[in-house]
């Protein structure tokens, strides 16, 4: 099981700058043929500039790698299909899809403009759906695929002013979990990276310069290149990656409380037990995975007494 990517074809969306560029450069260095997708928009998703993708293709070729540019938007069904078609046309297959393209339209929810909300979903959430849907059947048919979504702490923890972005990023995790189940038998593995990196998205957040200096996007890409490789056997995992630090993020259900299952508990019972319902202390591993506590309790009920 190799970490190298010779013979593999990778598509990286939004690869004309920031994290996508770093991922594309590393995947090419690992031996993959790369489709560098980017329509070259501003950070809020306006305008187009083909030079962004072209520059990264030049960088990859100058380093001896193989790459082609694609300028379609991830935010439409036709765009997603055209991006995957670019890989099939140029290189005859698609093995790796890194869903990375993104925009920001930050506003508190009280002030948000719903068109902005939808635009953020169009790129992050629907972009992930459209590109992955186009790549999915070719991956299932060839019995190999690696799909990587890009989520954010704004989704997994919430962040003021990012209701649109955070919910789109969290939506991708719901998509990831089911695709991980549906793809597993065909060796199509689906994971997510939650990055922290210096880019135009993070440059004006008041992060100190010495800290920004450690947040090179290239420090995130090794996680993506690993998830893109044959050597990776995990699916449905969220990997955090920033400044050389890597971790796994997962949701847990607490041990919880079991009332009589034959009738509804009273509101008072729930209120009285609230501390135990919500406490994480004393947890044992669930037979059904870390978030399978409800299934654990149901399984206990089905077992004969004693
Ligand atoms: P970036 O703005 O430098 O890169 C995003 C790229 O996506 C741009 O080059 C842009 O032109 C492209 N893009 C935008 N809309 C597109 C569309 N419709 N079709 C194709 N390409 C499009 O920002 P970045 O920080 O490199 O962000 C990359 C991804 O990582 C995004 O999904 C972002 O939400 C996510 N992310 C970044 C951070 C961070 O710390 N930088 C943290 C969490 C998540």
From TrEMBL:
Q: Gene3D superfamilies this protein is in?
A: NAD(P)-binding Rossmann-like Domain
SMART domains given in the database record? PKS_KR
Give the start-end ranges of region Disordered: 285-306
Ketoreductase domain sequence ranges: 8-204
Q: Name one Pfam family in it.
A: adh_short
Keyword list, A-Z:
Oxidoreductase
Superkingdom as given in the UniProt entry: Bacteria
Q: What is the protein name for this chain?
A: NAD(P)-dependent dehydrogenase, short-chain alcohol dehydrogenase family
Q: Which organism is it from?
A: Albimonas pacifica
């Amino acid at each position: 099981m190799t970490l190298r990517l010779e013979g593999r074809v990778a598509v990286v969306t939004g690869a004309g700058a920031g994290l996508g560029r770093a991922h594309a450069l590393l995947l090419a260095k690992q031996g993959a043929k790369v489709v560098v997708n980017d329509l070259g928009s501003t950070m809020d998703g306006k305008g187009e500039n083909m030079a962004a993708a072209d520059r990264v293709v030049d960088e990859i070729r100058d380093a001896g790698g193989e790459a082609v540019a694609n300028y379609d938007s991830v935010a439409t069904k036709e765009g997603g299909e055209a991006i995957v078609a670019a890989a099939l046309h140029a290189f005859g297959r698609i093995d790796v899809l890194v869903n990375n393209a993104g925009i920001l339209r930050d506003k508190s929810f009280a002030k948000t403009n719903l068109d902005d909300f939808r635009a953020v979903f169009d790129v992050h959430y629907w972009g992930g759906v459209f590109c992955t849907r186009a790549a999915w059947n070719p991956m299932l048919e060839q019995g190999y695929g690696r799909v990587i979504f890009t989520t954010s702490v704004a989704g997994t923890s919430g962040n003021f002013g990012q209701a649109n972005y955070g919910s789109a990023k969290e939506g991708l995790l719901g998509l990831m979990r089911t695709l991980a189940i549906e793809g597993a038998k065909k060796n199509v593995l689906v994971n997510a990276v939650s990055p922290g990196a210096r880019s135009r998205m993070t440059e004006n957040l008041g992060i100190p310069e010495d800290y920004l200096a450690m947040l090179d996007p290239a420090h995130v890409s090794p996680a993506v290149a690993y998830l893109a490789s044959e050597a990776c056997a995990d699916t449905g995992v969220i990997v955090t990656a920033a400044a050389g630090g890597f971790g796994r993020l997962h949701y847990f259900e607490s041990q919880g409380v079991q009332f009589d299952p034959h009738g509804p508990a009273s509101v008072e019972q729930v209120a009285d037990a609230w501390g135990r319902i919500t406490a994480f202390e004393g947890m044992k591993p669930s037979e059904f995975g870390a978030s399978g506590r409800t299934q654990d309790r149901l399984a206990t009920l089905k077992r004969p007494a004693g």
